[in-house]
Give the backbone structure.
Amino acid sequence: MDQTLRDQITDISKLSDEELSLLIAHAQNRQLKKGEILLHEGEVCRAFYLVEKGYLRTYYNKKGVQINLSFAFEGNFTANLKSIKNKQGSEFVIEAGEATMVWVFNIDAISVHFNTHPQFTLFVRRLAVRLLLASEEYSNLFKLYTPAERYQHIEKNNPQLLQRISLSQMASYLGVARETLSRIRGKNH
Amino acid sequence: MDQTLRDQITDISKLSDEELSLLIAHAQNRQLKKGEILLHEGEVCRAFYLVEKGYLRTYYNKKGVQINLSFAFEGNFTANLKSIKNKQGSEFVIEAGEATMVWVFNIDAISVHFNTHPQFTLFVRRLAVRLLLASEEYSNLFKLYTPAERYQHIEKNNPQLLQRISLSQMASYLGVARETLSRIRGKNH
DNA sequence: AACCACCTGTGATAAAAATCACAATCGGTA
DNA sequence: TACCGATTGTGATTTTTATCACAGGTGGTT
């Protein structure tokens, strides 16, 4: 039943069966409706999230306009690491893009076991490095490529993203106007 | 003599005196002339670098045009973490922006001690998280701000950068043409 | 001082993208 | 089927930025 959950955790870092069970015992299950917010702006993030069904969208609210920063689909983790690490209010919002089921791993609950289970420390740090490397990869798109090249990069390296989210959401993610992305897409026929 | 070196390391993660000495024993000192390359394109990065004097510039070579990605000044670490982690050739070049003195911490040399000195593992991971969070912070400039806002953000949060590097280097770092940055700067009088 | 390499400012023009406006399409539903 | 809301395509226009060209300026070196 929660075998996939176990697989997704051990994909980050190997844990003993006992440690796995202990970690999972701390995971809380949450059901979110489309548009429901998991982490509010200004709220300190105290957990990382694993998506079981649906997807989570992270965005920045710039004067009422939402700028998409990341998407996490089935089997992927997400969090606001800056907020967690610095214990500061989140600049970003994490919300459900569809009806979504997530596992919530509360950091405080887990950190209680850091001394007795050093593998937990490793797991959390590996997860952080993985999330941050992915974030760096994505953000280099903006430094190194033009809007059209960014779209082609997604087409090539992350095509499932195009199936799951609307053109408008993708335009915000790629940092271009919806109309511009529509024209880019038209050119590539 | 190397008290500042010790301080810069313990700023990342606390180590015992013995561990500090062991770590420092693995650090190699390198002198670089202006323009000398520390990490070549295609080379696998196997170390992290601590700048003692001068500065290191990381850039991406796009069809002969250098696009600046980061600068590390006195007391700061840098590396190509993606290359280290995935053991893949670096897409980026790290070179000295001035006559520069660096401490080179070879990962393989240090990892030998990971089992006997778990604090080394922690140190490396903390360093990685710090570098990646800084990288994320910087890259959000591109998603969230216009060129003029980016420049003002640097003026406010990192003014020493403007003292140390030329307008041309800064323009490449901010992702705008040199002329555009000159005009932005003119407007802010 | 004379020279040179490099950097910066600025005008003119071209290219790219944003914005505005509106028509067309698609799904779900009464 | 007819309606409604959300999404997408597309033309016209404006705004922003890049590109090109060139004129100072600066600092180091001989």
About this structure: Chain B touches chain A at residues 60, 62, 67, 69, 81-82, 85, 118, 121-122, 125, 128-129, 132-133, 135-137, 139-140, 142-144, 175 (CB under 8 Å). The two ends of chain B are 43 Å apart (CA to CA). Residues 166-168, 178-179, 182-183, 185-186 of chain B lie near DNA strand C (CB under 10 Å from a C1'). The longest strand of chain B covers residues 65-72.
